[in-house]
Amino acid sequence: MIQNITSRIMNSSKYLRELFMKFFISRSHLKIPSGPVIVKHNLYNQSDFTCAGVQQFIPILVGEQEPPAKRLVNSQKCIRLNDKDLVGYDDQHHTFFEMLGNWSFGDCSKAEALQFVWEFLTQTLSINPSHLYTTYFGGDGIHDADTETRDIWQMMGVPNTHLFACNAERNLWSLGDIGPFGTCTEIHFDRRMINSKDKKSKNNESQTPINFDSPHLMELWNIVFMKYNRHRDGRVTPLSSPLIVDTGMGLERLCTIMQNCNSTYETDLFQPLINRMSELSPHNLTYQGHWGHEDSNEKDTAFRIVSDHIRTIVATFAEGLHITSTRKYARKIKDLFKKTAIISNTKLGLERGSLAKLVPLITKQLGDAHPDLRINERNIIEKVANEERRLWAQQDEGFKHIENILSNLTRGDSVPGNSLSFY
């Protein structure tokens, strides 16, 4: 435990984020701010929310705009609500996360891009190469295998036992059915090395066959070589630059490794939130880190869900989202807000109105990297408090309405479903 606390202090999320930026700035990358999490102009059938760092660069990729520089780096705020039902029940997915990314628009070769990645992981962060596994695109009958990437990894010293050819589902990356796409190469970390006594040993080679769907392996970094654009009519054409490098690494997952944690929820990105919820709980609940059948009452799952979802709520409220809006994306956040408030109250025993007390922890944690959160803190707190009051008021009124309906029922009566809906 002492080792974990020390690792969190030495490898704080703020430190790791800044280290990433400095590394690429020193290699001629221009630092740019995060794009918004709410997608204003839904081009190429993108999602309602920014789900990848490259999303804001699509006009550049298809040749409609010029990049501010040939090489860029940033930490992008991302939201993926398609993962919301996994949140809390597994230890890797989040609805809100930060994507550390760097890009090159025709100015960086594959070899140089992969050298940057490997140098940052194995030299700057001192991660043991024997704990890393890499993949590359093995071909699919339509697109040729990316043997160039395979050869580069081999020349850099990655052994064949840690280098795997995978299919299009894993190593042909795109944002959707239309738009830019290309082959990719992933780097996975063997999580069995976390808290291992011989974590630094060069002879700690696992004899277990590699399964990339195994919870033991955490996808850490994805390097995409964007080369093509798929149009609405099915045509595939080359992109404006001969090779566009697009990389993304989840900050939460990096913190898990560097802070010697068993899950993202034990990192400094989530522990302050979880500890604050413990303080607010009248039952003196503490987070135990239990999963599955060990978390029989799902208290720990509730800690994880609330700490994740409130970050998404804060990020969207900072950009002026009103969940009373009729827009589809507003309804999604409204549903997420309702779920968060109810779980915090029924599972953790937090008093109504407690969610607003979590906001300052998030703005403090993320405000330096994303100033819009800090600047809008007071407004976010007010919006969260007002929305929670409205939710509980409508729910109380709704239950009274239901009780009134039920009290007047006689045998054989039916109740229209729409008369039971509220909020």
TrEMBL record:
**Highest rank taxon of the organism:** Eukaryota
Q: Which GO CC terms are listed, alphabetically?
A: cytoplasm
GO molecular function per UniProt: alanine-tRNA ligase activity; aminoacyl-tRNA deacylase activity; ATP binding; tRNA binding
- List UniProt keywords, sorted A-Z: Aminoacyl-tRNA synthetase, ATP-binding, Ligase, Nucleotide-binding, Protein biosynthesis, RNA-binding, tRNA-binding
What's a Pfam family in this record? tRNA-synt_2c
Keyword RNA-binding in the entry? The reply is yes
- Might you give the EC number(s) for this enzyme? 6.1.1.7
Biological process terms in GO annotation: alanyl-tRNA aminoacylation
Q: Where is the Alanyl-transfer RNA synthetases family profile domain?
A: 11-423
Top EC class of this enzyme = ligase
Q: Which family does it belong to?
A: Belongs to the class-II aminoacyl-tRNA synthetase family.
Q: What is this protein called?
A: alanine--tRNA ligase
Q: Which organism is it from?
A: Meloidogyne incognita (Southern root-knot nematode worm)
Classification lineage? Eukaryota, Metazoa, Ecdysozoa, Nematoda, Chromadorea
